[in-house]
Amino acid sequence: MRLWPTIRPASSRFSARRPIEGAGVTTLSALYRKAVAAFEAKGLETPAEDARHLVSGVLGLSLTEMMTEGDREIEPDEEADVSAAIERRLSREPVYRILGAREFFGLDFILSADTLEPRPDTEILVEQGLAILERTVRRKGSARFVDLGTGTGAIAVALLKNCAGATALATDIADGALETARANALINGVADRFETARGPWFDAAKGRYDMIVSNPPYIVSDVIETLAPEVRDHDPALALDGGKDGLDAYRAIAAKASEHLAENGVIALEIGYDQKDTVTEIFSAEGFVLTDSHKDLGENDRVVIFASARKS
What we know:
The protein has about 300 residues and is an alpha/beta fold. The protein folds into 2 domains: about 5-100, Helicase, Ruva Protein, domain 3, CATH 1.10.8.10; about 110-310, Rossmann fold (3-Layer(aba) Sandwich), CATH 3.40.50. It is built from 11 helices and 11 strands. The strands form 3 sheets. It has a 7-stranded mixed sheet, with helices on both faces. Strand 5, helix 7 and strand 6 form a beta-alpha-beta unit. Helix 1 (about 30-40) packs across helix 2 and helix 6 (about 120-140) crosses helix 7 (about 155-160). The termini are far apart. The model is unreliable at about 1-25 (pLDDT under 50).
């Protein structure tokens, strides 16, 4: 499996190669242009960006090398690898699924069939969760949190990597997702503070936590068939389908959160762009109060944070 380029050594086998004069030579820049042209003809939304990441990822190049090594010769086996990847993208398989890994919050995460791709909007949840953990560590000396429905482990691993005083339990219902999450914790050097457990939501959680964090499935069931092929055909349905109204996971989390939230603990959740009010109503009915909310770069509601409304 090929990984995101930053996982590879910084040096490249292209760095010492010079183009050989004569017919039949393919250069890096020509290969890139071939990919862009194919993606434009297919009508993909971001052909140049897709081509840049796909070609660099398959060949193990940084994006800087893509710009500076354009006249380097591409060997036939390398061209065949890139051509195969182009065909997969033309069938609407996402770039990072093809590469097998994606960067998130400055870290590298391998993907699997049981996991969503970690996406930039979720970095907002990590930013807010990190601030919560840092305050908790200053107050208590340590912090313990649970990541419900962890998938790749991206949220939990990113939080642990940036908060040395924290430990995490990551839960999921898919064994494959937990295996992927453990691998990502190991790759990113936080495996000693990262525990996993299989089960839905709080069924696998024991004890109480300073923070409950989750990016649960929140897409309305009937909407899934209308999604782009990159999502509909390649992301696991269990990680997308939020039920008839998209809110099943939030109800399940809210119903048992009070049993697992430590004193002064908080709940930090990603939500769909139109779900702030309804998710707030669900948690309010279970004795929680909305203390903060944050929008994504598109100015859509994306993160909500709750605390217990009951005084200790």
